[in-house]
Amino acid sequence: MTVPQPPTPPGLRVEDLAGNAARNRTEMVVRYALTGAAGMSVLISTAIIVVLLRDAVGFITTIRLGDLGDSIWNPRLGRFGVMSPILGTLWVTLVAVLVAGPIGLGAAVYLSEYASPRLRRIVKPVVEVLASIPSVVVGYFAIRFLAPEVVQRLFSGAPAKNLLVAGIAVGLLTIPLMTSVAEDALRAVPSSLREASYGLGAKKVTTVVRVVIPAAVSGLVAGLILSISRAIGETMVVFLAAGGVPTRPTSPLDGGTTITAAMAAVATGTDNVAGASNTFQSAFFLGLILFALTLSLNLVADRFVRRVRQKY
Amino acid sequence: MSGGASTTTAEPGPVPPVYRTEDLAVFYGSFKAVRDVNLEIRQNEITAFIGPSGCGKSTVLRCFNRMNDLIESARVEGRLTYHGVDLYDRAVNPVEVRRRIGMVFQKPNPFPKSIYENIAYGPRLAGLARKGPEMDEIVENSLRAAALWDEVKDRLKASAFGLSGGQQQRLCIARALAVGPEVLLMDEPCSALDPIATGRIEDLMQQIKQDYTIIIVTHNMQQAARVSDHCAFFTTEVSEESDTRTGVLVEFDATQQMFSNPSDERTENYVTGRFG
Asked: Is residue A271 part of a domain?
């Protein structure tokens, strides 16, 4: 039996330990390529923000600040009542959260606590299918079904396109996100806590309501905030189903527009506006408001998620 | 209890046993986890289940409060009676069973709530009290019974997570006692604790056994020898045809007898440290 002997060079030189030059080069190339990819995403984000800021500031300088208090948002006519799309966004988001919050949480509790593993393997992908339906399809679903069959039946006299219809449709789109984040949060609750509760003679529903949900609360709130953020950013559904009405909405049954839909409207239509006019630039101003809203919400959500990670 | 006669069931004492098992076997799906469990648990005694890992001692313990019901594939054969009532009778509600039979787990598992709320959870479920002085009294008595009161009385509103491991485990014992159970099942309650904390839990068990019947699963033979009155030794047997391991109850006897004069060679090998 021969055992490989370590070579014992008579005189070890630095070059002997320098390694294969070609391999070292590969290492460097890979490293630069990956750094470049990471740097690229930072660069792109920066570029977006710079462009957004440049035109938003350009817009502000062309108007009087008082113009923003107008009751109508119609930049083609020089009406810049920014409260109309902002209120529209708030209504749509509120309705969407009222739809997606309870349904998403309920589905998450069901998947995490009640469904057998076999059933979960079936139900979960079905919920996720909802996430893969293009939002433009959901927009037409809203016009064709939600508006006439649901909203107008409940509220006769409501216009065919209104913020409630749009909000419900956005809510449907948001359910998968809420479900998946909430389910993760619930499943992160250690089973030892459930055992402790059952061991004390608690029923399943008591265990879920008094132990599991409270223990997962930061994750659930994070899911809710992410859902809000998603709902605020949704464009196509609202563009199709909210009515595009430029006035300030007084109730969700009014037709209206949102920040996102108003931005889309600037770039569409037969009288596409030219790049330099302040009508065109107004979209960037709205975009800045939108960006500020979603960014701050995502930061808040991020903090909550971090808190839930430290919990156990 | 005389003459060194070791039988698989203890001789009937003057008080009827709390639990009696007859050919109890537990399956997970088609896998037979443990079989041939015949034993009796006596009132106000500490009974220890010992044996190597995977011998089914925890599995058997979890039958005693129907905790195995939480595992979908778990199935029980044979008979398990609690004061003469078949615990696996169709009419028995496991939730009711668990109110009467407390459990302490391997890893301390306090709720992410305050010390007070940890204790109050069970009594509130059972409708013993909701809040106020009545609940205060239950909380204090339970913490006193678990020898934790003096250490936590000034911070009842503080999170239970701020306690040390040993304190958390005593909190879990107090939490279990707060619903007024008759039996306390302890599933390796000291395996996550240091020797000092372990000693405290053992002292506590001796104190409370006059009021409760205790069954403890332990890996630690010295612990079984120190605290228990009766002892059940489990081991694993490899099935010839299917090459699966199944736990079996080898011997059940008074602890002293078991450690000084075991009747089965496998028990002797285990308690003398030659195996496992």
From this structure: yes
- Regarding whether A58 and A123 lie in a shared domain, the answer is no
Name every chain B residue with its beta carbon within 8 A of the beta carbon of A116: 72
How does the average pLDDT of chain A come out, rounded? Answer: 89
Pick A192's closest partner by Cβ from B96, B100, B107.
Answer: B107
Q: Do A195 and B98 touch (CB under 8 A)?
A: no
Cα dihedral value A193, A198, A200, A205, nearest 10: 100
Residues A41 and A112 placed together within one structural domain of the fold? no
A214: chain B residues, CB-CB within 8 Å: 112-113
Tell me, what CATH number does A245's domain have? 1.10.3720.10
A162 and A137 belong to one structural domain? yes
Contact across the interface for A199 and B67, Cβ inside 8 Å: yes
Chosen for mutation from B101, B104, B114, B121 (greatest number of chain A CBs closer than 10 Å) is B121
Point out the residue among B99, B111, B122 whose CB comes nearest to the CB of A193: B111
The CATH label, of 1.10.730.10, 3.40.109.10, 3.10.310.10, 3.40.50.300, for the domain at B28-271 is 3.40.50.300
pLDDT at A275: 61
Do residues A153 and A253 share a domain?
Answer: yes
Position A40 in a domain: yes
Rounded mean pLDDT of A142-152?
92
- Residues A200, B121: C-beta atoms closer than 8 Å: yes
Which residues, 6+ apart, have CB-to-CB distance to B83 below 8 Å? B16, B18
- Phi first, then psi: give them for residue B245, nearest 5 degrees: -100, 135
For chain A, give the percent of residues with pLDDT over 70. 94
Residue B247 forms contact with A (CB below 8 Å): no
Interface touch A311/B112, C-beta < 8 Å: yes
Q: Which domain holds residue A141?
A: 68-310
pLDDT in tens, A204-225: 999 999 999 999 988 898 899 9
pLDDT in the model for residue A258? 95
Q: Which residue has the higher pLDDT, A177 or B126?
A: A177
Residues of A in contact with B99 (CB under 8 A): 200-201
A261-304 residue pLDDT tens? 999 998 886 666 666 678 888 999 999 999 999 898 888 878 87
Q: Where are the beta strands (DSSP E) in chain B?
A: 19-28, 31-41, 46-50, 74-82, 85-86, 101-104, 183-187, 213-217, 230-238, 245-254
CB proximity list for B100: less than 8 A, separation 6 or greater: A201, B181, B182, B183
Residue of B nearest to A215 (CA): B112
Q: Is residue A10 part of a domain?
A: no
Instruction: State whether residue A202 sits within 8 Å of chain B by CB.
Output: yes
The structure tokens listed for A196 are: 């402790």
Residue B108: Cβ within 10 Å count: 25
